[in-house]
Amino acid sequence: xxxxxxxxxxxxxxxxxxxxxxxxxxxxxxxxxxxxxxxxxxxxxxxxxxxxxxxxxxxxxxxxxxxxxxxxxxxxxxxxxxxxxxxxxxxxxxxxxxxxxxxxxxxxxxxxxxxxxxxxxxxxxxxxxxxxxxxxxxxxxxxxxxxxxxxxxxxxxxxxxxxxxxxxxxxxxxxxxxxxxxxxxxxxxxxxxxxxxxxxxxxxxxxxxxxxxxxxxxxxxxxxxxxxxxxxxxxxxxxxxxxxxxxxxxxxxxxxxxxxxxxxxxxxxxxxxxxxxxxxxxxxxxxxxxxxxxxxxxxxxxxxxxxxxxxxxxxxxxxxxxxxxxxxxxxxxxxxxxxxxxxxxxxxxxxxxxxxxxxxxxxxxxxxxxxxxxxxxxxxxxxxxxxxxxxxxxxxxxxxxxxxxxxxxxxxxxx
Length: 415
Fold this sequence. Notes:
single chain, mainly alpha, Lysozyme, Membrane-bound Lytic Murein Transglycosylase D, Chain A, disordered N terminus
């Protein structure tokens, strides 16, 4: 039986435990929220909000003021991403710094096909403007092209180069994609949605909603795409109004003033960097598409190299490197199948078969096998008629040699 003195003590104990429990739950909830927005490459997926309680007329007015061709709508979905990106001050500060180098490249490519300039902000949410970014499903580069889509828009992926990582080539390919998407869909927000999930998914959502308004068809789109367009609008807002949210520009190490040369033979990035008296890594950053740090130019297909502005003193050294014998560079190099046939490899004692078989061992996946044989994961899928990336120990995979890999994969229709 409880006495009058015992009751308050018991209640106090319960109250203390309740406070501790609430504090722990709050800490876990806060931690989960932080973790959910720490990924700076992918668009975070946020829960739907049934009611909009924090409508901000200032944000609405600012978006209206910077709207040009692409409608920059303001609603609860956009507001949630504005909240996220304004909290990511370090990330957005870096984006502001990097944009000084990349935006002129994007703008030139988009302008060539009359694509709205606002599309230049898309790589912020696609890749955090990192040319080496690779998504969970294999999309690669600043504009996050899948292998097959990249091939369809003229980008080359071979043993030496992945043009999905080339800021210039990939930007022109992205502009071409948007031209096609807009011609079919007739709306820029729908074209942006299609860039994320494909024109087919957007058309199916249009049919279900019986509308061509993105905000009307949004509920019928894949979850990631529902968030993709609001995130894009929020990124445009933050990049234009960073100063209003105490976001400071962080200086980029990328050299803004550059020259472009074309080389018609093989030359290493290391030799160019030495001639220019600069760090090899800095030159690689300007030329991120070359896998082996080798510029694989030929007379039939010269390759572009981006360099810092070259002084007259350095130009003589550069000239010497570019005109020296290429035999040492080509030695022990397996040429990609689309290179100039007049450059010959040292003949081997016996000819290599067109393909070989690899037996999968425990712990291997398609990525590790592709790296082992210097081929693409998509090549392995096409050669072995794989519908997905699942393989099992003991399975035998057909591997074509380097001279035939590009030719066999060029007709691929795998995603």
